[in-house]
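Hi F.,

I've been meaning to write this up properly since the lab meeting, where we talked about keeping a consistent format for the predictions we share between groups. The idea is simple: the sequence comes first, exactly as it goes in, then the structure tokens exactly as they come out, then a line or two of notes. No screenshots and no reformatting. I'm using this chain as the first example so we have something concrete to point to.
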Amino acid sequence: MKKLLFLALSCSLWACKDDEVAPEVKPQQPTATVTVWDATQWSPEQPKGTLADGATVELFTSRQDYLSKKPAYTATTNSSGVASFKDIPEGVYFMVATKGGKTNTWRDAQGMTRVSDTLFQTEAEIKDPTQPVQDNVLPGDFKCRDLNGDFVINNNDVAEAPFFTITVRKDSVNTARALIGTTINHAYTTLAAVEEAFSTEYLKISAAHQQVVMLDGVLSDDADCQITNLPSGWCELDQFKYTAANSIVENVWKTHYASIFQLNRMLASLNGIQGDKAALIAQLKAFRAYLYLELQTYFGTLPMTEQLLMPTAISAGSIYLTRYNIKKDLTAAIPALPDAAPGTKPWYITSSAANMLMARVALFEINGDTAISYTDKVIATKRYALADSAKVFTAPASNEIIWDITANMNSPFKDYFVRGGLTVNFCPAIRYTETYLIKAMGKILKEDLPGANEAINIVRTRGKKPAITLTNLDDARLELETLYKEELYREGFRFARLVLYNKAQTVLGSKGYQAKNALLPIPQSVLSAYPNLFQNVGY
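Output, unedited:
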């Protein structure tokens, strides 16, 4: 009986084996990975930026699904910047990567986007004449495709969004990359970021100003090249044996322009930032004007631009255009500049400082009326006073100081800037003394001898000199020249004033000065890079 039962069970277990249906096994679906790079973190050492963890990657089966915000698949990148998609059907998917406002698809109101998955790596690449022209970009910015083939990248070079795709195939390694960023990677995105960048750039502007102050002193009879730690290039300047290859001249030009381009970058960034930014824009424009004014003083006519890099085809225009643009920036800035610099940023330019810069420009233009009008605005504030000569440099907070941008005053400048044999710790950019000296010159230009006499005696009295009565304009000029030399010793005025008033040959001829030395040469490296710029006469 047991044997029969076993046989029956065996029959039921193994019967119909040939007709058995095997469980359904679904074919394995392909996988795909997308590696995302944050292009805003570009550097020469990180040519694609940095790997972006926590970025969202969406795959869409159609553009309509993208417009409807209906991704077919979504994944988040890991710490290696990789988003993984498993078991997705074969096909072509539109690929959109995003993180914190950065993306690879910059859709506009018409549903169009610029197209780029590469970055500019060098300034030379940006200026390559064989490549389409793309203005206002820096290394690290997206290199957009010239979609209409006109060799210029502009708003006509757009495609339907999204643009980039990934093709998924079975039995293939399905990978793609996405570079995310903004349409302008170089742009600062917040007011705080611009302010931080400005605070950093100010340190460089201070160093550039110190170099110009020392340059003026060595060129003039204020100082010579025997100051401690000065390299040989300074002695070439002291003896007027320099050429367009002089390293000091080249450094002055390039450091000033480097800061100008950074200020341009900040101003361009502010165009896309919301908030109360008028005061910050005013600071940036006033500082830019100041840098251009320093360059104009020693180089004359300048190439001027609001772009982020010097355009290869730029030319210098005229000296009148150079000064016009300086005045334009200052005029735009003055209404939003503070009466006094904030305590946390004592280096900020004030309305009085900007008015003094306007007065300096007026002297270059031999315009006495304008020079007087700007100095009178400063005097009318009653914020400043002529300090005792011995106390002017005891503290930058003195009422004598209109604007001080000194930072990190080190050798050799510290060895250069001495007063009464004593090294001091700051070198003001503008002092109240200069206000009366400019006013006196304005009066002389207007042939107002009593007015010139009054302004001159205000400065003399401060210097514990007796008041004098000047009987003619020539005597007033001579006295003013003496006061400039004594009162503003080694502060960056002597050489510029000797040139402006045609006294350089008389005073500096024994050092080797010639007529051509009224202006410094444009650095040879600059002329080589910009063929439409021309050398100053005599070099």
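Notes:
The CA atoms of residues 26 and 324 lie 77 Å apart.
Residues 191-219 form the longest helix (29 residues).

If this format works for you, I'll send the rest the same way.

G.
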